[in-house]
Amino acid sequence: MTEERHQIPQHIAIIMDGNGRWAKKKHQPRFMGHRAGVQAVETIVRHCVARGVSVLSLFAFSSENWRRPSKEVSLLMELFALVLKQQVKRLNNNNIRLRIIGDISQFSNSLQKQILEAQTVTENNTGLTINVAANYGGRWDITESVRQIANKVKVGLINPDDISEDDITAGLTTMPLAEPDLFIRTGGEQRVSNFLLWQMAYTEFYFTDTLWPDFNEQSLDDAIFSFGQRERRFGRTSEQLKDDTNA
């Protein structure tokens, strides 16, 4: 494909939905769907690198997912730990930076240690950045940012009248990365499910019925092609965009 760089979304955010339904269709335990989902992640990471994407944000485990059956949650935690152990060296060798966004304090001490070590190993890499949202919620993210601002107001570092949107943005877990250009949700549902709520104010949305384990290189190319057909005005008119392009 020959898209110009501006037609390639530089930050893609994905809700990887459909692992359980994929396993059910194949008469397998739900956990097998999650394992297949990990393989899909590997495929999409490689393709993002090939397509020149700068940031990939993946919703791995939401703050609401604790409500799932305890056995499934336990297996998900084990899978998360296993993937970190197996993949961090490969990510580092491919110049990929790993960031975990979310409240990791709820995880076991051993898993927290793995997360911090994986981030440290890859923190100086300059290629694709992967944000893995684990025990993450968009409302939690905004609340934490507001709490930081409130503490600064309390000690006199900020005047309440001077608080801006930029101050809230600066306290989010995704900083200093750019906001998502393209949001993809697999599995047929059409909602954002508390993912990057503040950050996706001007993000283009793409929904597909494809279940996550079946989401492949062509699936991602289809989403990128759809993105390339959009006119991103950010509040301006089409005529203003044309004038800017001509200028």
Largest sheet: 6 strands, parallel
Instruction: Label the overall shape.
Output: globular
> Total domains, how many?
1
Pairing-aware structural class of the strands and helices?
Answer: alpha/beta
Which architecture would the CATH scheme give at its second level? 3-Layer(aba) Sandwich
Mean pLDDT: 92
CATH fold node name = Undecaprenyl pyrophosphate synthetase
Question: How many strands in all?
Answer: 6
**Assembly state:** single chain
Flag low-confidence runs: none
CATH class descriptor? Alpha Beta
- The CATH homologous superfamily name equals Decaprenyl diphosphate synthase-like
- Helix percent band: 40-55%
> Termini separation (Å)?
27 Å
Rg calculated over all Cα atoms: 19 Å
Strand content: 5-15%
| Secondary structure tally, helices | 8
Gist of the model:
The protein has 247 residues and is an alpha/beta fold. It is built from 8 helices and 6 strands; from the N terminus they run βααβαβαβααββαα. It has one domain (8-246): Undecaprenyl pyrophosphate synthetase.
